[in-house]
Amino acid sequence: MTRPTTLLRDDAVLQVSDTGDGTAVVFQHGLGGSEAQVAQSFPAGAGFRRITLECRGHGRSAPGSVRPFSFQIFADDVLAAADQAGLDRFVAGGVSMGAAIALRLACRHPDRVAGLVLVRPAWTFGAAPRNMQSIAEVGRLILEHGPGKARTIFAQSEAAAQLSREAPDNLASLLGYFERPDAAAFAQVLADIASDGPGVSEKDAAALRIPALVIGNARDAVHPQAAASALAAAIPGAVLAEITSKALDSSRHFAELQQQIAAFLHANFRSLI
After folding, report:
1. Residues 24-53: tens digit of each pLDDT
2. Which terminus, N or C, of the chain has the lesser number of Cβ atoms within 10 Å?
3. Residue 1 has pLDDT above 90, yes or no
4. What residues make up the domain containing 217?
5. Residue 115: which of 33, 45, 23 has the closest Cα?
């Protein structure tokens, strides 16, 4: 059963989903994602309680007026959601942007985070990584030209042509940003977050002493396997798993993803935290 709640942060009303029972896992969506993306990624009925905050400007959450959007703000919001849910300790995880939020929480609040699940990470330890340039460009084009004209410009670009050849799943996601009903407003989220970073260092990651799972896949220009490998190498004892790319077989990708997460959680977190 899903227990939807709201969280007021500054002037932003944020939506929180709280589902299942057992060890608490705070699991976050990617940039442009929502609760629906998490539900597709996280194993259902695995015997764990999952809490997901829809970040500002995502899903049903309001953007609020605080600018710029940042990992600091998003992570602080997620921690507030954990507080509201009564969680002293929890497993932190997420997809892409959600993975960066989880990493920040683990490094900045080691007393709260008992484990990490980092899925298809797009950030490691720096801001504005090269693999996020195409998303930053989409945000810039929409802000400058509006969604319709911006889509035409981007679709005719060399970046789009290269993605079409090498990572069609990424291209489909990028083109989807132009089609959002809130594309004009959401462009600022894209521009701000693509230019930001989790605000932690390799030294911070090396100090972690918690079970960690890092999941990557090939043929993914936005979430390079190299990023997953770098994070797994930096976190002591982290397990690195490579699953089927969404671009090759989406159904197999999500089946393997859920299997990896469930196996990791059951192996390391059998009892309530």
Report:
1. 999 999 999 999 999 999 998 879 999 999
2. N
3. no
4. 5-127+196-268
5. 23
CB 22 within 8 A of CB 50: no
CB 17 within 8 A of CB 61: no
For residue 273, what pLDDT is reported?
46
What pLDDT shows up at residue 45? Answer: 82
Residue type, 166: E
Residues 149 and 78 placed together within one structural domain of the fold: no
Q: CA dihedral in degrees (133, 96, 71, 178; nearest 10)?
A: 50
pTM of the model: 0.96
pLDDT over threshold 60, residue 272 = no
Other beta carbons within 10 Å of 160:
19
The one-character DSSP state at 132 is G
Of 192, 216, 245, the residue at which a domain comes to its end is 192
Closest CA to 40 of 263, 225, 272, 258: 258
- Is the pLDDT reported for residue 118 higher than 50? yes
- Do 171 and 105 share a domain, yes or no? no
Last residue of a domain, one of 143, 171, 192: 192
Cα 183 off chain centre by: 19
Question: Is residue 273 included in any domain, yes or no?
Answer: no
Name the domain count of the chain.
Answer: 2
In the sheet where 212-217 sits, what is the strand order?
Answer: 5-9, 12-19, 48-53, 23-28, 90-95, 113-119, 212-217, 239-243
